[in-house]
Protein: Tagatose-6-phosphate kinase
Amino acid sequence: MITTVTLNAAIDKTYFLPTFPLGKVSRVQRYRAAPGGKGINVAKVVAQLGVPVTATGFVGGFNGEMIKQLLDRMGIGHDFVSVQGESRVCLNILDEENGISTELLEPGPTVDPQALAQMEEKIREHAAKSRIVCFSGSLPAGVPKDFYVKLVSIAKEAGAYVILDASGDALRFGLEAGPDMIKPNEEEVEGLLGIRVQDEAALQKAVETLLQKYGMDRISVSLGGAGSMVASQAGTFRVETPKVDVVNTVGCGDSYVAGMAVSLATGLSLEEGLALASAAGTSNAMTDEAGLIEPEEVERLRGQVRITAL
Ligand SMILES: Nc1ncnc2c1ncn2[C@@H]1O[C@H](COP(=O)(O)OP(=O)(O)OP(=O)(O)O)[C@@H](O)[C@H]1O
Ligand SMILES: O=P(O)(O)OC[C@@]1(O)O[C@H](CO)[C@@H](O)[C@@H]1O
Structure:
């Protein structure tokens, strides 16, 4: 079992527009609405890869009900903590002619102390039944900056392998609890070390430094269409993913995390896991919804991922 945690769940809305002129009226002919927020995207991809998953986190209001109903329709198990207020809408406006994506992310509900305590309990309960727990995304108002420290510690004490995909203070604090894996982008690596990364050699040095400093199992730095660089206890690898026709890249990082979680839960080797994670991220880029992949496409792409030991 894999558990995903989304403290700021969302309805992900995508508007597909031929162009997106600012200051003009645009009538939307085609759109999609899906349950989202990073951890929920991870859960959707894990389920599409055929591994049992439970999604937890905070949800609120009508949007919260919609998130749960949409997950039910997808056959994805969930066990959320309900909060006052409304779960957010995250809007992605895709200007298809220019290939530009503009994201507008609402703040989400304010979480009260009682709900925080309930969440700690939920993590204790689900981590005890899970091989992998993935914590993903931003913290809504009312959630202390160091909440991931508590949750990661609880999940680790219960014996789960912990993946943390967060940014800013949430990541910085969360690292103190010793997650097994993180998936920062280059900017987040720079922020964590207070340096500028000029080239791949500098990036390699930076991720190896982070790996040793926090005693992690692996760090994947995702590089969009350029793939990823992964430092692990077994060495550092440059992972190149196939070039494809891109439709929508929102959720690629979550799909990558899902592939990694599935590989760990099913006992794949590190190299096999890197290929699966990259293929899942790339397959997501070819679909129009965050957290949507094509399992057959993933199978095809897996064989085309190039992994080089550095
Ligand atoms: N343009 C692309 N073409 C092919 N594969 C892609 C592309 N963008 C992303 N991917 C795949 O998805 C993986 C993760 O993507 P990315 O680096 O964009 O993550 P991210 O920045 O965390 O994304 P997000 O936060 O939107 O989920 C990449 O390592 C790659 O395998
Ligand atoms: O505000 P967060 O939690 O950091 O990010 C939220 C979000 O932009 O991330 C996903 C893509 O990774 C979207 O589906 C989602 O709405």
Remarks:
- The radius of gyration is 18 Å.
- The mean pLDDT is 97.
- The CA atoms of residues 178 and 214 lie 6 Å apart.
- The pocket of adenosine-5'-triphosphate (ligand 1) is lined by residues 185, 222-225, 227-228, 241, 244, 246, 249-254, 256, 278, 281-282, 285 (CB under 6 Å).
